[in-house]
Specification:
By secondary structure, the protein is mostly helical. It has helices at 11-26, 30-38, 57-61, 64-67, 70-98, 106-119, 124-136, 151-155, 165-171, 177-180, 183-190, 192-211, 216-239, 241-244, 260-265, 272-277, 294-304, 316-347, 355-368, 373-385, 400-404, 414-420, 426-429, 432-439, 441-460, 465-488, 509-514, 521-526, 543-553, 565-575, and strands at 103-104, 308-309, 352-353, 557-558, 561-563, 576-577, 585-586, 596-598. Strands 1-2 form a two-stranded antiparallel sheet. Strands 3-4 form a two-stranded antiparallel sheet. The longest helix is centred in the middle third of the chain and has 32 residues, at 316-347. The termini are far apart.
Length: 600
């Protein structure tokens, strides 16, 4: 028979019988036994007993070996162990203990502690403390992995250097009472080294060797090096890549960004712009799609059986308001491209801009979906030089509708065409940014006006494509156009005239609000070369001036022109209509640029 003898037969017979039994086993999965035979750690033999040898244990204890080849078992084990480690980090120390985005019963907390131990990171206490500091003092010296210090520092460098004194100081102020009172965290803290050795190194190495037929060296290398290093780097990518690369649909003022690639490898932690806006959402993402947020799937599973409960998430209205800010952001960028770019920079040369700012202005202008920059500047220079005459492209003497949009629906007046050929456009043609825009005008318009504004909410914010298209290609685009046109129509018909009572342009606060500061039109037609396009330049009703001052601070905008206070005062005293709080009635034509003073 091929089985082992019950009695104590000859030694050679026992060895021969064992060899026969081995050959019978090899015929089932020869590759597994061959790998076992090559192991430098031979398994013990149990003669004269009914206990199966360890080499037969995989058939009884690991059904996975019946369905997968020996070459596939180790990667599958690695994915399983790595997934458990990732769940311990994302579902445990991050979403449960750090942010308290849900509550967990004792069995789930124990599972999360064991899974976190597989990850081989710091103690739960240290992890939670550092992460709470990170959220409270993000991108400052108090942040343990401040992304402003570069990718490498945020990724792993912060673990190789001493903490910044400010980080240590802030860490002592963080409330950790809820963590200290958790018996599971207390147990982990007390037995940290033992738990790390057991769950991170010993068990992940022992199981593939003993139960899956792997060699000990291969099992140790794959689990204690490859799997461990990958798990660490996937976690660190949230601190580095997700703080440097991606879009900012929820809050563009902060570094954390939406990064799909990081979310895939970090089990749902890459939707980082959302997470820093709503850190208490148990999904750590708005939509929580299971395909790129595996942690949310398992939390929902545990919620079904009652081990996870009180799962927190923001209301849809709150998220909706955040998404609506995206529309305002796109519209604001488009408006800035028109007001600061085409109008104040390229038409009136009210300031000078370095190449990076000119490129930004060109891209923002493309969002507005208007004519080419060359055509816009030429028409506006004609408008100022021949205002309210037949040569004026949008002559307001022909009525509100004509000045608003009618002039775009019919052919230009012959006088307008004639005068347009006399306008000096040499400075515009000499600008390489405008040359680029003129050459690729249609492609840039389609890309920035329609494709990008529609695709971003669909791809990253979960909006239906048709709704994203309607909101950005119809509503936002139409509003942006009309806000610009109001400067030609309403601001030339309705309002007071404190600087020149004999010209049509008027001061109109409502127009100034929707057009980002372009409604102070009586002043602008008297002092067209003032970079503020208004006397006071209050930021609340002149957003464009605010951003120009910001760019002036960093040196991208310079030689900002504005009239002297004395010149404005004399103008008010002689030519105002009496509506200015300091001026008598008077009249003035456009003031020559020679009387300007530079503010920078």
């Amino acid at each position: 028979m091929n089985g082992r003898p019950r009695g104590g037969g000859a030694r050679s017979d026992g060895r021969r019988n064992r060899r026969k039994g081995t050959r019978t086993f090899v015929s089932f999965t020869s590759s597994t036994t061959a790998a076992r035979a090559r192991s430098t750690f031979p398994r013990p033999v149990f003669p004269n007993s009914g206990i199966p040898e360890p080499q037969t244990c995989p058939r009884l204890l690991t059904p996975i070996s019946l369905f997968f080849s020996s070459a596939a078992r180790l990667p599958i084990a690695g994915f399983f162990v790595g997934g458990c480690a990732g769940f311990g980090v994302t579902g445990g120390v991050h979403r449960l203990w750090c942010h308290r985005s849900y509550k967990a019963k004792l069995p789930l907390r124990i599972i999360l502690m064991c899974c976190y131990s597989i990850a081989g990171q710091n103690t739960i206490y240290d992890w939670v403390r550092d992460h709470r500091i990170h959220h409270k003092y993000s991108e400052t010296n108090g942040d343990p992995h401040n992304a402003n210090r570069g990718f490498l520092y945020a990724h792993v460098g912060w673990l190789m250097l001493r903490k910044h004194p400010e980080c240590i100081k802030k860490g002592r102020l963080i409330d950790m009472s809820d963590i200290v009172s958790d018996p599971v965290v207390q147990f982990h803290h007390k037995n940290f080294v033992l738990m790390k050795l057991l769950f991170c190194f010993i068990l992940p190495t022992f199981i593939p060797w003993y139960f899956l037929g792997e060699t000990f060296l291969m099992s140790f290398f794959s689990q204690c090096f490859v799997r461990y290093v990958l798990s660490l780097n996937f976690t660190w990518l949230v601190n580095s890549a997700a703080h440097l690369y991606g879009n900012h649909p929820y809050d563009e003022r902060i570094n954390p960004a939406e990064n799909r690639a990081v979310s895939v490898v970090a089990m749902g932690e890459g939707w980082h712009n959302y997470h820093h806006v709503f850190p208490w959402d148990y999904k750590a993402a708005e939509l929580g799609n299971y395909s790129v947020n595996v942690t949310t799937f398992w939390l929902d599973v545990f919620a079904k059986i009652g081990w996870a409960y009180d799962l927190k998430e923001p209301s849809k209205d709150l998220v909706r308001r955040t998404i609506e800010k995206y529309g305002f952001f796109v519209g604001g960028c488009a408006g800035f491209g028109v007001t600061a770019g085409a109008h104040r920079l390229w038409t009136h040369r009210a300031y000078k801009a370095k190449l990076p700012l000119r490129i930004i202005l060109m891209c923002c202008y493309c969002l507005s979906g208007q004519n080419s920059l060359f055509d816009w500047v030429r028409d506006h220079r004609i408008h100022h030089k021949y205002s309210e005459t037949d040569a004026d492209p949008h002559n307001s003497n022909r009525g509100f509708f004509y000045a608003h949009v009618g002039w775009l629906l019919i052919r230009k007046h012959p006088e307008c065409i004639k005068k347009g050929r006399l306008i000096d456009m040499s400075d515009v043609l000499a600008d390489p940014v405008i040359q680029f825009h003129q050459r690729y005008f249609m492609a840039l318009k389609i890309l920035f006006t329609f494709l990008v504004p529609s695709m971003v909410p669909w791809l990253f914010l979960g909006e239906p494509l048709y709704l994203s298209f309607l909101a950005n290609c119809l509503l936002r685009y139409v509003l942006t156009l009309n806000f610009t046109w109001l400067v030609n129509s309403a601001a030339h018909i309705y309002g007071n005239k404190p600087y020149d009572s004999r010209i049509r342009p008027a001061e109109n606060r409502a127009v100034s609000i929707v057009s980002m500061g372009e409604g102070w039109h009586n002043y602008h037609h008297v002092f067209p070369w003032d970079y503020k396009a208004a006397e006071m330049g209050h930021y609340s009703v002149n957003v464009t001036t605010f951003w120009l001052d910001v760019f002036a601070k960093i040196g991208w905008a310079y030689d900002l022109k504005e009239p002297s206070k004395e010149l404005v005062r004399r103008t008010l005293e002689k030519y105002g209509d009496g509506t200015h709080i300091t001026a008598p009635i008077g009249h003035l034509k456009e003031v020559p640029e020679q009387e300007t003073t530079k503010s920078r």
